[in-house]
Amino acid sequence: MVKYDAHVHIALDGADYKEMKRLHQDGPNEGHIRALLSAYKEAGFTFLRDGGDKWGCSLLAKSLASEYDIDYRTPGFAIYKKGSYGSILGRSFSDINEFKELLEEVKKNNCDFVKIMGSGIMDFNEYGVISECTILPDEMKDMIKMSHNAGFAVMVHCNGNEKIVNWLEAGADSIEHGYYMDEDTLDLIKEKRAFWTPTVIPVAALAGQPGFNEEVIKRILQKHMENIHKAAKLGINLLSGSDAGSFMVPHVKGSLKELALISDVDPGEDSTYLRWPRRL
Ligand SMILES: [Zn+2]
Question: Which of 260, 235, 276 has its CA nearest to residue 2?
Fold first, then answer.
């Protein structure tokens, strides 16, 4: 079976964010990145798509990846709206002109696609609750249009049905996470020929951890798994992405777990990731 992970954060170690912040404070730590690339290669991985970081780690990883026979795609940093979720992974904008400036940097860094933090994060103690994200539908359309015109596909971190629908209608190329999605929205993903990376492992990994309500997590995952099964039946472009590097998700191990889970549900489609556009 082909081994790939369509959502990793090579900057992070899956355990201690503060420690990683220290590690990369004077620039991306090459030893950390090489050790992870080497572990992925050893485990047989040939494709990694990064979800971004704010220290330039994924850009360095991209420049080293050919030494490890890995096709490495990265947006560089993730782009988030000032005041909304995303400061741990990227850089912020407050209006469309500032977004345009960030897009110029994505171009200058020779990135592979644009990553937008398009919703808040889930509250694991209260079912259905997601933190606020203030990007409005018209702004979403402008952001995607500008990115597409610059030749970039757009990967959107998004939870919550309404926001997922808005981003898909604005032209998002992939929805990352996609928790709390209604069944009808799967038809929209299909119609738009978008990709969906459901990232199950990072949520499953929180069950039993102190400070996270296990019942809420179980309920979230049950609905999510139902959607993944439906998506596979509909022939949606499902990507295995583990969010490796995020809290409690170790690189390689987490990637293998997510891959096993997705290929179990969707056994015929382990090369979908190859259709993720290089540049438009
Ligand atoms: Zn992520």
Answer: 260
Q: Tokens standing for 89?
A: 């992974």
CA of 168 relative to ligand 1 center, distance in Å: 18
Query: Separation of 50 CA from ligand 1 center, angstroms?
Result: 8
For 61, list phi and psi in degrees, rounded to 5: -60, -40
Cα-to-centroid distance, 7 and ligand 1 (Å):
6
Question: How many other CB atoms are there within 10 angstroms of residue 190's CB atom?
Answer: 15
User: CA end-to-end span of the chain, whole Å?
Assistant: 28
Reduce the DSSP state of residue 254 to 3 states and report it: helix
pLDDT of residue 196: 97
R_g (Cα) of the chain, nearest Å: 17
pLDDT for residue 269 = 62
167's tokens: 């981003």
> For the purposes of burial, counting CB atoms within 10 Å of the CB of 27, is it exposed (0-12), middle (13-18) or buried (19 or more)?
exposed
Which pLDDT does position 270 carry in this prediction? 62
